Amino acid sequence: xxxxxxxxxxxxxxxxxxxxxxxxxxxxxxxxxxxxxxxxxxxxxxxxxxxxxxxxxxxxxxxxxxxxxxxxxxxxxxxxxxxxxxxxxxxxxxxxxxxxxxxxxxxxxxxxxxxxxxxxxxxxxxxxxx
Length: 130
Description:
Elements: E1 2-11, E2 14-19, E3 30-31, E4 34-36, H1 43-55, E5 58-60, E6 64-71, E7 77-85, E8 87-89, E9 99-103, H2 118-125
Parallel strand pairs: 1-7
Antiparallel strand pairs: 1-2, 1-4, 2-3, 2-9, 5-8, 6-7
């Protein structure tokens, strides 16, 4: 099972969403920034590292707000852990994505998110999370 962390970065009641490039697995799908937890790495440390690599920020990682286990039809499985991020240092820069966008909760529903993120996106739009 792949272990992944992702950030719900909040600013002015908006959440940062990121679109994968055409060359990545599951191309052009939307997701929240983050990535794989490396061997021996703690989840918060992995997320801090991923946010620096992907967006060029030093984030203060907040509470874990959701944990999702997802089985893909192809047979792969993933454990996703989502953390809130209210504070970071530096200016967000798009280092790896096709597009990044600040999105209102309800507008998240209009983006083509990864299948594993659907439940969380629905809960965020409904105000059940955060």
